[in-house]
Structure formats: structure tokens, C-alpha cells
Amino acid sequence: MKILEASAKAVEELPVVSEIWRGFVASFPVMLGFVPFALVLGAQAVKKGLSPLEVPLMTGLNFGGGSEFAAIEIWSSPPQILLIVAMTFLVNCRHLLMGATLAPFIQHLPKRKAIPALFFMCDESWAMALGDSRQRAAKGTSPSFSLPYYFGVAAGLYLTWVIFTTLGSVIGPRIGNIEAYGFDMAFTAVFLVLLKGMWKGLRAARPWLVSLVFAASTYLLVPGAWYVAAGALSGIVAAIVWAEQE
Fold this sequence. Notes:
Blueprint: H1 2-26, H2 28-47, H3 54-62, H4 65-73, H5 81-92, H6 94-106, H7 111-119, H8 123-138, H9 147-175, H10 185-198, H11 206-221, H12 226-245
Helix pairs in contact: 1-9, 2-4, 2-9, 2-10, 3-9, 4-5, 6-8, 8-9, 8-10, 11-12
């Protein structure tokens, strides 16, 4: 009897396992793209004084690559905590808009599942989950948001990020300037691939272009990492202004 119950339970759980595997497999190319700039971040963090133990704590508890690069860029001894917190908030505030976009697809989830899921939301897992949900909705699949698929994507990306930033902190000091190999270009390449998949025309991309112009101008004219704040704020303001007009 127990064997039959166990078999029935295994059959019932099979779709969950297959969905997790589908998400993990789908995220594999992005995981490969994570590796180079995770190594770069780990190496940069060690150069700024963080230990190989502190690096996975930072990347595991924050899990926001852009904000972590910004924080390391302005890291000093002693660290300017308020500046780092403000910069991290500005860089990560795009997650408010990303979460709002994803909200209609996850509103059926209880908070005990939705909140942990949102912790693991990064640009890549958000884009892949949103694209998958829209495809499932177009096919009439309900619910359109597959939590196991999202978990498979997020788990692969999270573990890759934490493991390889830690590895970068260990091997970075031994192989010298890891940025000289051009690994940091992978960061840009991954975002360009995601942008291609989500491109809806020049009109929808106007806030991004505003952000790019302000960030580049500030980088050229103002010393320090203020270009991050300039790009984030100008993009948010542009998005709000155009949203109200439309």
C-alpha cells in the first residue's frame, strides 16, 4: 500500500520536477554568461579588501550584480555605508518596475511563495519568467506563471553567481588583472541578448536611451560613480513622464 502511495506521489510530482529541469536547462546559456563577470566581480572585491568568505556573503545576500559592481567600485576603507546603500538602492530600484510587471502573473501565489520567489528575481530570471509566462498565456495554459520553471531558472543563476564570484575571489589574486582578459564584456553581452528578446521598438526604449545619455555624460564629466545614480534617476523620471503622457 505504501509502495502504491509513493508511486502515486512520484507521478504527481513529476510535472514539478520536469518544470524545474526545463527552467534549469533554459537558463544554462545565461549561466555560462554569468561565469566571466562573476569571476571579475570576485577578483575586484578581493582587490578592494573583501575576504573570500565575505564575497559569497555579499553576492548571496544581495544577489544583484549591477549594484554589487557599483558597491565595489566605490568601496573604501572605512566604507562609506550611506553612499553604498544609496547607490545600491538606485541601481536596484528598477526591481520595483520589474516586480510590478510580473505581479499580474504571480498574484495567484500565496505570500509565503511569492516573497521568496521575488528575492531570487534578477534581470535575467525576470526576463525569462516573463517571456515564459506570456508564451504559456498565449497557449491558454493556466496558471501562466510556472513557479517550478522559475525556481529552476533562479536556482541555476543564483548558484552560478555565488559559486563563481567566490572562485574569482580565490583565483583572482593568483592570475593578476582578470579584467585584462575582457571577461567583463560578458556582462554587457548578456544584457544585449536579453534586450534583443524584449525589444518592442524605439518608442518603448526611450527611457533606456535617456538613461544611457545621462550616464555616459556624467561618466565623462563627473569623477566617481555618480554616473550610476544619474543613469538610474534619469531613466526613472523619463519612464514616469512618458507613462503619464500616454
